[in-house]
Design brief:
The chain is α+β, with helices and mostly antiparallel strands and 130 residues long. 49% of the residues lie in helices and 24% in strands.
């Protein structure tokens, strides 16, 4: 009986931690959203990265292309991205509702940029750059 109770308690803690992680997604700061999206993408955690994405058909199409591209990477490259650090080169506040983050990572060191837009007081990543 003790084993069953211990098992049930462990499962409950696991489920609670999953719910808390889901609820901990914060979209109130464009820099935090950008870093979370970039980091999740580098880690190959696209389900988590998708939570920061502006959901429209064009963004989803670009996002799926990103996933397909990354799925074709060699294991060495995947591991390189996973161990990479994010380098934010600059942040441009275009409007009160648009921010551009110029960044690279320590693995490929290629300059990239992402665009964040504020929608209903939440910052979301828009893969369409202006």
């Amino acid at each position: 009986m003790r084993k069953i109770i211990l098992f049930w308690f462990t499962v409950q803690l696991f489920l609670i931690s999953c719910v808390q992680k889901e609820n901990s997604i914060k979209r109130g700061d464009p820099i935090e959203v950008g870093r979370e999206f970039i980091d999740a993408s580098l880690q190959g955690n696209y389900e988590y990265a998708k939570k920061y994405l502006l959901s429209d058909s064009t963004n989803m199409e670009y996002f799926n292309e990103l996933i397909n591209f990354n799925n074709k990477l060699s294991p060495r490259d995947k591991e390189g991205y996973k161990s990479a650090n994010i380098i934010i080169d600059s942040i441009q506040n275009i409007l009160d509702t648009i921010t551009i983050i110029n960044y690279s990572n320590t693995f490929k060191k290629t300059a990239e940029k992402i665009k964040l837009v504020q929608v209903n007081k939440e910052w979301l990543l828009n893969l369409l750059l202006c």
